[in-house]
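in:
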């Protein structure tokens, strides 16, 4: 006969479930995306992508279990857009992930689209455009998911003592101008544009008021396009408790490194005395830059302000940039190394030129090219053929996974730069990372016995120059998920692969909302068929978008270098000729003066009439502007 305790268990469970559901809510945002003018570093006014007439753009905040609804209207006028919610797994809602031509069509000017998803993961995230390399123009902001059951809340810090910081690089030129010049035969070496400044919270000279004897949780997000950032707080330690939304065992650091797209949450305990204020610094990783302009200040400083009446000291010089190694973190849940993988994605990072003379980024021999049909829509419309990677095209580098697969990604870096790799839809176990210049995994004689038994987990992990990384994840989230370098220049130049996870399950569970289909119809983008839009023969890829043809056979590395220098020499030659041609000629000047004295001037037209259409004036457009004032609060 059941005991009284047994009879109580079911009602209590029901009550707990009911109470849990009753606390979940729907958080709704209405975003009108349009242009504003900003000047966050005080050096240059420029068009910036804002939301609802403001920039910086709003922070999205919710609690674990909440549903987030974002009504998005594109008022840019001259560019399409989309929103990706970086680090959110989108369990059951892969169609809300945001990358254009992957999980949706871009939102054309004048069109609208609604994102609707439930979040069951705590942590520090961000959202940004995932269309045409656009987010460095300003369309990126924090996304914070609060956890009332955090193991650190109330034990280590109070909710009211959370602070959110973004750090980023900043460009004075728009991406629509920078990107064509970057992927161009005039840039055969693939040198990425160097930022003009660094920012804290989209401004400079940031002041963060603090109280003495208080522990704060700082959630720091690198929302930049390119530069990794070394970060330190003078006179204070940082105790790391979360990276990329995953709780880890507390670890004390003097300095951390955040690549583009990485996040880190750490505790800072303030001092007892209030007689001094303290600088905190972000320093851009200049090893990523091909050139270092003389006028570039690659540091940005903020201050922990104990007393506003006290001076703000200049940061001290540091002898070396010696950051905490995130690979040594231990996950809070002590999850052990996943079992032997049954699916492998072996990828080599290569930077190389194609037949148009421009430099591209490759995984193995493939540089990514967006398909005619969004990859998710191909998975949903391909029937049984959805398990055949061919239908997703020759240039999406697609791997088809079955639910429950243990997937191992091995990435060899055949390039001399760092690359932060991000996986959509999952975090991963970082099971091995070589030192810089270690060569390839195959050359290393590393085996599974050398892998971390309790690997740290995150969704964005840095691969060192000419080294390698090994990652693992379980395919437990059906969807279409990109794996790519999060240096935005490398996304645009093709350093992307695609995981199509359990496509037959997707066909049974996913229904595309009408407003998503309408976004495609507005641009005449097909929503069924293979990567070429073929709905009859799904294995016929005739007409699929392609990357440029390869260079002719026989172009060795030496030949490519010679081509690069030939192009540069040609450009310099044109400049010299132009300079010579424009230089004043003394003899010609004397002859001109003589002729002028012999000839009466004749007026043609009116000197007051401007070039172009007579009697017209330039049109002036005024837009709302929010610029950094050097005194923002976190």
């Amino acid at each position: 006969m059941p005991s009284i305790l047994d009879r109580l268990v079911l009602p209590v469970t029901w009550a707990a479930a009911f109470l849990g559901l009753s606390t979940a809510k729907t958080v709704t945002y209405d975003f009108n995306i349009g242009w504003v003018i900003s000047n966050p570093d005080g050096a240059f006014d420029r068009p910036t992508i804002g939301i609802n007439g403001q920039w910086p753009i709003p922070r999205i905040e919710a609690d674990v279990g909440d549903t987030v609804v974002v009504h998005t209207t594109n008022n840019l006028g001259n560019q399409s857009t989309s929103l990706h919610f970086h680090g959110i797994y989108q369990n059951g809602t892969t169609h809300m992930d945001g990358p254009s031509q992957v999980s949706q069509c871009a939102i054309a000017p004048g069109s609208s689209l609604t994102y609707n998803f439930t979040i069951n993961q705590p942590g520090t995230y961000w959202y940004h455009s995932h269309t045409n390399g656009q987010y460095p123009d300003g369309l990126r902001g924090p996304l914070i998911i609060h956890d009332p059951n955090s193991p650190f809340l109330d034990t280590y810090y109070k909710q009211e003592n959370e602070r959110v910081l973004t750090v980023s690089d900043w460009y004075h030129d728009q991406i629509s101008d920078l990107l064509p010049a970057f992927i161009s035969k005039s840039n055969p070496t693939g040198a990425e544009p160097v930022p003009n400044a660094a920012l804290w919270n989209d401004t400079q000279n940031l002041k963060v008021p603090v109280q003495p004897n208080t522990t704060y949780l700082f959630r720091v997000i690198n929302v930049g396009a390119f530069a990794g950032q070394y970060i330190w707080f003078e006179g204070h330690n940082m105790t790391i408790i979360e990276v990329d939304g995953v709780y880890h065992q507390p670890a004390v650091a003097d300095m951390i490194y955040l690549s583009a797209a990485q996040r880190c949450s750490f505790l800072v305990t303030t001092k007892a005395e209030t007689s001094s204020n303290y600088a905190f610094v972000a320093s851009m990783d200049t090893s990523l830059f091909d050139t270092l302009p003389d006028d570039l200040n690659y540091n940005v400083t903020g201050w922990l302000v104990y007393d506003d009446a006290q001076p703000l000291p200049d940061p001290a010089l540091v002898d070396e940039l010696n950051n905490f190694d995130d690979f040594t973190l231990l996950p809070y849940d002590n999850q052990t190394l996943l079992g032997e993988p049954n699916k492998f994605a072996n990828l080599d990072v290569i930077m190389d030129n194609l037949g148009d003379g421009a430099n591209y980024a490759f995984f193995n021999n493939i540089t990514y090219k967006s398909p005619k049909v969004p990859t998710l829509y191909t998975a949903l419309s391909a029937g049984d053929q959805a398990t055949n990677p061919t239908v997703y095209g020759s240039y999406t580098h697609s791997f088809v996974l079955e639910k429950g697969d243990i997937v191992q990604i091995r990435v060899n870096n055949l390039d001399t730069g760092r690359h932060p790799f991000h996986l959509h839809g999952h975090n991963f176990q970082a099971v091995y990372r070589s030192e810089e210049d270690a060569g390839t995994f195959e050359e290393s004689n590393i085996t599974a016995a050398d892998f971390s038994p309790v690997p740290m987990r995150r969704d964005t992990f840095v691969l060192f120059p000419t080294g390698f990384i090994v990652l693992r994840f379980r395919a437990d989230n059906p969807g279409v998920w990109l794996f790519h370098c999060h240096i935005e220049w490398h996304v645009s130049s093709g350093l992307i692969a695609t995981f199509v996870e359990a496509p037959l399950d997707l066909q049974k569970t996913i229904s595309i909302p009408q407003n998503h289909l309408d976004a495609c119809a507005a641009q005449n983008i097909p929503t069924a068929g293979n990567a070429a839009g073929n709905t009859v023969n799904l294995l016929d890829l005739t007409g699929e978008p392609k990357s440029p043809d390869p260079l002719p056979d026989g172009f060795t590395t030496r030949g490519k270098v010679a081509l690069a220098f030939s192009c540069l020499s040609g450009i310099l030659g044109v400049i010299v000729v132009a300079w010579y041609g424009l230089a004043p000629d003394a003899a010609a000047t004397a002859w001109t003066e003589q002729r002028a004295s012999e000839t009466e001037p004749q007026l043609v037209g009116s000197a007051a009439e401007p070039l172009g259409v007579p009697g017209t004036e330039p049109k002036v457009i005024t837009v709302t502007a929010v610029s950094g004032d050097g005194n923002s609060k976190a």
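note: The first strand starts at residue 26 and ends at 38.
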